Amino acid sequence: MQDYIDLAEKNGVTLFDNGVCQFCDANVKRGIHECLEIFNTGFQEIDFSKSKNHIYRFLIVDAHTLQHPEIHGRWNNHFHLSRLHLVFKYNIQWSYELSPKLSDHLNMYKVNNSNEYLVPPRVLERGKITTSDIREKSNDEEECKKMIIKWAKEVYSVWCNSYVFVDNISKVFIANNNSRLNYANI
Ligand SMILES: [Zn+2]
Fold first, then answer.
1. How much distance in Å is there from the Cα of 165 to the middle of ligand 1?
2. What is the whole-number distance in angstroms between the Cα of residue 134 and the centre of ligand 1?
3. Whole-number Cα distances in Å, 111 to 6, 99, 114, 118, 182
4. What is the pLDDT of residues 56-87, one digit of tens each?
5. In this structure, which residues have their CB less than 5 angstroms from ion ligand 1?
6. Which of 12, 36, 44, 82 is deepest in the core (most CB within 10 A)?
7. Domains identified in the chain, total number
């Protein structure tokens, strides 16, 4: 779990140990550290062992990563925004088997696009819903699920300047994986 501290340093970002989360504005007392604790241990209302609930895990990871790109490698943005694009724009029913396929696809994409950089929205302007909202405002499983969807949709919407890139990635991914894909509205 110290990885994020190293990554922030590598990205030239100083992490603040107190106050709200400096990236997403989550209402916490120990900054990004507590924001990550909620990310890692919150959402207990949902039984993630059920396959119908896997989608919420994917959305949580995508939303949180895209709200905190400074503590991740830069290609993570491509992965998580592409996945949200595939889920929200193309209604792909995501499953665990698709994630490594998307990673493989991006590894090939990187070869010819090694200088491409997705510019994140400014800090504190990455969607109004944050980890602390989910902790404070969702009292049961259904509320928690609804809020996760809203959270992921908000984060997805503020990354709109990068849709042009992930749309190209998504179209080729869909063409190459057509036989594996199922569709569902979320
Ligand atoms: Zn945060």
1. 25
2. 12
3. 25, 19, 6, 16, 28
4. 999 999 999 999 999 999 999 999 999 999 99
5. 21, 23-24, 26, 35
6. 82
7. 1
